[in-house]
Every structure is written in structure tokens, then in C-alpha cells.
Amino acid sequence: MSDAFVPRPLDRTEPFYVAGHRGLVGGAIWRLLETEGFERLIGRSSSELDLRDRDAVFAFFAEQRPVNVVLAAAKVGGILANNTYPVDFLSENLRIQVNVLDAAREFGTQRLLFLGSSCIYPKLAPQPIKEEYLLTGHLEPTNDAYAIAKIAGILHVQAVRRQYGLPWISAMPTNLYGPGDNFSPKGSHVLPALIRRFDEARRDGSKSVTNWGTGSPLREFLHVDDMAAACLHLMENYDGPDQVNVGTGEDHTIKEISQIVAEEVGYTGTIEWDTTKPDGTPRKLLDVSKLRSSGWEPKIDLRSGIASTIAWYRENVESIRT
Question: Which of 99, 180, 182, 192 is found 20 to 30 A from 321 (Cα to Cα)?
Fold first, then answer.
């Protein structure tokens, strides 16, 4: 039973399945686990295993019997995609989660980490956002379908703990960035979008770059390698029904972040702001005191993280999602 479970270092010889191992978070977790000496890592691309296909997922778990699982697979996108295709984000994520979680329970997975998103919290939640604010207010309408799917995943994990006593946990990351991100003009989030915009402006010799809004909203960013380290830390050191916020506990204005990106890509033109465009939520900062009390701190500062992400983007620009 989970009540008697004591977190401990994971056995590096046991089968470990990373669902979504080619995505931003899953890829970082996979790299870390390789570095940490895990010998039996299991990964399947979406073409090899469609996690929306329940029979295929159950057959996979029956064959592989992973003892440890990180569920990082999800249909993700920016505000435009979430707002345009809410049915897709709700339906596909629910199917992925239910299939993987049910199969993991059926075939003996002992330790499982479900990854959510900070969008699960109410749009107008007090700042910084504590874990207990979940389900205390209305969601941001533009991504409520995705948020509901992720909330369902958290409750699914909690239900498994109550009904079956398995020590499964959930983690809620803040805004993530790093190698493997989505740099698409329509599908990317703010930081990779800024990197692409400023790097192209530098290359093209543009005299000015125009960003949406006023630049005043505050956002928190965590490098995906830090996120991977936090996930392994939680699997080896934390057990409890509540989701754990994962972030830096610090935020910056979009204007400050834009300036850092411009400096790191070498763009010397002017930065302008289209104030007719929306700013979005004024602030979204996670309270990470629970994570820090467990003994974990991020190691990658924002500027050096942005610099390394720019370097990765330039090395891979021909093959990445653009």
C-alpha cells in the first residue's frame, strides 16, 4: 500500500518506460536516465505505438511489463491551437492518459509519474500558485479543454492511490523550454517563438522586431533538463496524493525575456510592441516550496539556458519542428 511506501533510489536494472520520449520533456528525461545508468529504457514513437489505441497499449504493457513509467506523452500546442481545436486536445489527451494509466495498473507498474501543466490552475488564482488552488476557480477559456484532460489525469492518479494503493505521483511543470522545443510560428510557445523571430531578424538584417502586447506580463520559465532532473528526484524522494509544482519560483516580464533573447542571438535592432494585441494573463508563477522542501533546486539560470537553446536551434534548424 502507498501508505507504507518509502521513496528510494530506483533500480537501474528494472524496465523503465518513457511515454513521449521524443517530445520536449520526454526527450530530456530519456537523456537523463541514460546518463544515470538506467539499463532497460523503453520508448516507442507514435508511429510505432499509438497511445490512443487501447488494445495496442495493453498489448505493449503486457509484453514489456515496465516497473517504472513517466507519462510525458500528450497532444500539446500554443494558445491558437488549443483554442481552435479543443475537441482534439480533450479527446486525444484523455485517451492517451486512460489507456496508459489503466494498462500500467493492469500489468504491474509500481512507480509512475504523470506530467501535467500549470494551465490546470484557475485563471485568476492567487500568485504564486499553490498546489491546493486546483479546482478552486474558472480555467483560462482558451485552453480549458487541455486543462480538463490534465486535471482528469491528476484525479486518475489519486484514484489509483486510493483504490489500489500504488505509489503513483503527479508533477505540474511551469513553462518549459530547451532542446527539442517546437519553434513553429503557429504552434510554438512564447520563448521558442522569440528565439526564432529574433534569430531570423538578425539573419535578415531587420531593423526592428515587433512583439505582441505591452511586454509587461510576468512568466516563469524552467529549462527542460532541470525538469527532467526534478522528475527523477520526485520519483526517488517524494510520495503523496497531491501534484507537485515544478519551477524556479522566479518570473520575468516578457519584455525582459525578449531583451535577453535579442542579446543572446546577437540582434542589435529595435524591439517594438504592438499594444493592440492581447497580453494574456498578467502573471503565472508557481509556488515551488513543496518541491524545494524535498531537497531539489534548479541549476540552469535563464540566460545560460536561453543561450544553449539558441545554439541547439541553430544546429538543428533544418530538421526541427518549424
Answer: 99
